[in-house]
Design goal:
The strands form three sheets. Strands 3, 4, 5, 6, 7, 14 and 15 form a seven-stranded mixed beta sheet that branches. Helix 4 crosses helix 5 and helix 4 packs across helix 11. With 325 residues, this protein is α/β, with parallel strands linked by helices. It is 31% helix and 24% strand.
Length: 325
């Protein structure tokens, strides 16, 4: 089969290759998916660069998200799943074979039914961005009349977090860095946007919340934004952290102690079975009901242009970057 791969860490143009590799077969408890699309996430880029972890295999096919059709089932898996449209998660987590390929074999639970009305492009957005967002919103305890600040409201996770929080009845504030990103956050449902490059985030949050502060912050970069916690969060509020731009972050510990602030970290790749099932069920329900907007970045890329797809993620864009097989 054809696949993109790299054999050492480095820049996209230097290390990414496209060629023929061994075709996977579905083992016991597994399905094989003929992939139509693969999603490129910031974590895929960082892994390829070697900034978060060094390559652990002689050859690695990148990317964990994707969508396609089951074309082979292993022992113990119902043959009725053959031909099923699916989206996949954790395709490349702790294994060398990701979704930047024509085929992937993986445990059957990691291939989730994709409604017929949902495109394969949208299906490739769900594994990391949507699952991160729904779990963050759950941890935040978002409910009717609560107020949530979503950091990076125009990002892939941010846009899903806005939608899931709004579905729970919350008022959502979102930080952004340009008018274009403000429009994207509002399209996702944000009630208010705050341009952190041009406005004082703390002042705007207090203005918008009647000086109360938000109930929770959903944070994409704790290292950069921890300093804002005392200025945006109410006493006994929560900070839900799914990402950080640096290995260490300086917390306003005195404020957090005195105000009984809860800081909750999580890594979407390591959700336990129960957490994963809840997230998958919520995503599937939203898709079936037509209540989840999936923003695809333009252009989409051919597998042969995977280096350009990775570079687009590095530069930053609005929407999920998709590679088509």
């Amino acid at each position: 089969m054809r696949a993109a791969y790299y054999e050492q860490n480095g820049s996209a143009r230097e290390v990414l290759r496209v060629g023929d590799v061994e075709t996977p077969q579905a083992g016991p408890g597994e399905v094989r998916v003929k992939l139509a699309t693969s999603g490129v996430n910031p974590s895929d880029v960082k892994s390829r660069q070697g900034s978060t972890r060094k390559i652990a295999w002689p050859r690695l096919i990148p990317q964990s998200d994707g969508a396609g059709v089951i074309d082979q089932v292993g022992d113990g898996i119902a043959k009725s799943r053959l031909g099923e449209r699916v989206w996949v998660w954790n395709g490349q987590w702790k294994r060398a074979f990701g979704t930047a390929a024509e085929l992937i074999a993986l445990p059957a639970a990691q291939a989730v039914k994709l409604p017929d009305k949902i495109s394969f492009e949208a299906g490739a957005c769900l594994g990391i961005p949507a699952m991160t967002a729904i779990h963050a919103v759950a941890l935040a305890g978002t409910e009717k009349d609560s107020t949530v600040l979503v950091a990076g409201g125009a990002g892939s996770v941010g846009q899903y977090a806005i939608q899931f929080a709004k579905a729970q009845g919350a008022t959502v504030l979102a930080t952004i860095s340009s008018p274009e990103k403000a429009a994207a956050a509002r399209e996702a449902g944000a009630d208010h946007t705050i341009d952190y490059k041009r406005e004082d985030v703390g002042e705007r949050v207090m203005e918008l919340t009647g000086k109360r502060g938000v109930d929770a912050v959903i944070e994409m970069d704790l290292a950069a934004n921890a300093k804002l916690i005392p200025f945006v969060l109410r006493p006994k509020g929560s900070v839900i952290v799914y990402g950080t731009g640096a290995a260490a972050a300086s917390l306003p510990a005195y404020f957090c102690l005195i105000q009984s602030i809860r800081v909750q970290f999580f890594l979407v790749y390591e959700l336990d079975t129960r957490e994963r099932e809840r997230a998958v069920s919520a995503i599937s329900r939203a898709l079936e009901q037509g209540k989840l907007a999936n923003r695809i970045a333009t252009p989409t890329y051919a597998l042969t242009d995977i280096a350009a797809a990775h570079e687009t993620v590095e530069r930053g864009t609005i929407g999920n970057v998709i590679v088509k097989m």
